[in-house]
Amino acid sequence: MTREDPRRGPEPPRMDALTDVAGIRVGHARVAGEGALSGTTVVLAPEGGAVAAVDVRGGGPGTRETDALDPRNLVQRVDAVVLTGGSAYGLDAASGVMAWLEEQGRGVRVGPRTDQVVPVVPAACLFDLGRGGDWRARPDASTGRAAVMAAAASESGAPVAEGAVGAGTGAVAGQLKGGIGTASVRLASGVTVAALAAVNAAGSALDPRTGVLYGEYGAGEPPAHPSPEAHSEALRRLARAQEAHEAAGGGVPPFNTTIAVVATDAALVRAQAQKLAGTAHDGLARAVRPVHLLTDGDTVFALATGQLPLAPENPVALNEILAAGADTLARAIVKAVRAAEGTEGPGGAFPSYTDLYGG
Q1: Dist. CA 29–CA 124, nearest whole Å
Q2: DSSP of 101-118, one letter per residue?
Q3: Cβ contact 131:172 at 8 Å
Q4: What is the rounded CA–CA span in Å between residue 132 and residue 348?
Q5: Which residue spans within the chain are E strands per DSSP?
Q6: How far apart are CA 45 and CA 25, in angstroms?
Q7: What number is the average pLDDT over the span 304-327?
Q8: 241 by DSSP, 3-state: which?
Q9: Averaged pLDDT of the chain
Q10: Is the dihedral of CA 322, 179, 157, 48 positive or negative?
Q11: Which range, of 28-32, 42-46, 120-124, 295-299, averages the lowest pLDDT?
């Protein structure tokens, strides 16, 4: 059954995903080949783009075109945001997205002809180098093109694959396998707020005292506590995995990152979108501990499609959107960790949450 908003008609079925913001599409692509454990996720805005902003709080970020999103600067809207593995090498995936957008005539007009455009494609990367065994297996322009084409080929409001897909393919959250997660909420005002996260944190998503995922404490429902016996066995398995990891040489250092996109169909100006990106980091801090370290590149983008104006008579109408951004990002992180499947290979053994605690 659907509700009806007089401003936009019947509400479509909710996917609990970023794509619940009308017009937003998501595509994933994975790096091919033996020894590869990395990929790219593209968030494609509706035709005409979306108001965009960013807030970078990690001490080791890898980003592209984030300065263009400063509210003081020229560009107001972007057509796509790229989340990618491969550390700074993987930022090349944005080049493939940029080339595809140019072919569609989408971007900032810089000349009299419609094909004279420069697409602005902000991007952020996470560190997953060597997780599959091949240090050089990382996303490039072809991976970005495949991801944006997958997004463009999807239906409006389509479900979004979660877990070890796209930018989350090689992601790790503490000692657990990480991945992609997404969530959304429709507010009483009719505004939709949604988030998508690639969870690859140096910190932990798991409370070591209880086995509860940190983000569940703020999810609006009582967290599901594993039994003490299940939790004790999970801690033993994690300890054995860590010992094996260290005995094998320790692998690569924990240069990790959680990168995310928060989107809304509200009509926000750039400064408001930047505030949304900033407060969404509160959700990251609820779901992962610690965050924003020197070895993290924690970055949150915000997109506003502008379909629903804020109530002009309410000077703090933005507040519920800001709160929802943090809530949905925390829940997206929980869903990412729950959706991930464990992996074991040359880059290390990383059990999933469900491996340890069941569904």
Answers
A1: 15
A2: HHHTT-SEE-SSSTT-EE
A3: yes
A4: 8
A5: 4-5, 9-10, 25-30, 39-44, 50-56, 63-64, 77-78, 80-84, 108-109, 117-118, 123-125, 172-173, 176-177, 179-186, 192-200, 257-266, 299-308, 343-345, 348-350
A6: 7
A7: 94
A8: helix
A9: 92
A10: positive
A11: 295-299
pLDDT in tens, 48-77: 999 999 999 999 999 999 999 999 999 999
Residue 223's pLDDT band (cuts 50, 70, 90): confident
Residue 61 vs residues 8, 9, 64, 264: alpha-carbon distances, Å: 39, 41, 10, 24
Question: 4: which residues sit within 8 A by CB, 6+ positions away?
Answer: 10, 11
Task: Give whole-number Cα distances, 140 to 13, 34, 82, 301, in Å.
Answer: 35, 16, 12, 21
- Interval 291-303 mean pLDDT: 94
Please give the Cα distance from 116 to 8 (Å, whole number).
33
pLDDT for residue 239 = 87
pLDDT number for residue 250: 59
User: CA nearest 165: which of 151, 181, 176?
Assistant: 181
How far is residue 305's CA from residue 322's CA, in Å, rounded to a whole number? 15
